[in-house]
Amino acid sequence: MWTAAARAVSPLPAPSLPGGRRRGRAATVAPARSTAWDFVGGDLVRPDLGRWLDDVEKHKALAIYPPHEGGYEGRYLNRLRYQGYYFLDLTARGLGDPETTLTKIHPVCPPSLGRQPVARWYFPPEVDYRLSLLHPDAKGLVVWVIEAKVLSKAELQFLAMLPDLRPKVRVIAECGNWRKFIWKPLKQIAGLEPDPDAEK
Q1: Is 121 strand, coil or helix?
Q2: In what order do the strands lie in the sheet containing 61-65?
Q3: pLDDT tens, 35-59?
Q4: How far apart are CA 87 and CA 171, in angstroms?
Q5: Do the Cβ atoms of 129 and 141 come closer than 8 Å?
C-alpha cells in the first residue's frame, strides 16, 4: 500500500484503452534535489549591499536587472536612503526627452477636452529643481528610472552622462529583468564604455 502512495503520479489521468485498461508503465519516482536557496529566496540573503554602495559611488550610473516578481530592489533603495540620498522616481514611459525633462525648462501641453483652449505650461528642470530643494546634509539625489528598457540608446547615454553634468546626482535605471538582482554600469549598457562580459 505504501509503495503505491509513494509513486509520483501525474496530475493528468493516463489515457485508457477500450475495456477500461490503462496504457503505459507506472510512473517512476525521481529524487528531488533542493537547497536552502529554494526555501529562503536566494536574493534575500546575499551579502552584496556593500558592493552595491561601492558601485553606486564608483560608477554613479547603474543599470539594474531585478527579478520579475519585484520587491528586491527595495532593499537596495533603502540602503541608499540610509546613506543620505533623496529620490526622484520616474517612469521611462511618458518621460519624453530625458535631457529636456531633467535639465531644461520644458513645456507640457495638457490634453484639450473639447471646447477648452489649448494650453501650454512650462515646468522647471526636474533634477535642478529637486537639487535646489535638497537638505544641506543630503548626500545627493538618486534619479530612479523604472521601465528604462523602452529608452533608446541615445537616451540611455544621456542618463549615463547625467552624473557628470550634475555631480550630486546618481542614476539607477531598471533596464530589464533577470533571475536574481544584478547590476552593471550604465555606461557599458549604453555603449559608452566597452562591456567586458560581451567580449567573452
Answers
A1: strand
A2: 85-91, 140-146, 169-174, 61-65, 182-185
A3: 665 555 555 556 788 999 999 999 9
A4: 10
A5: no
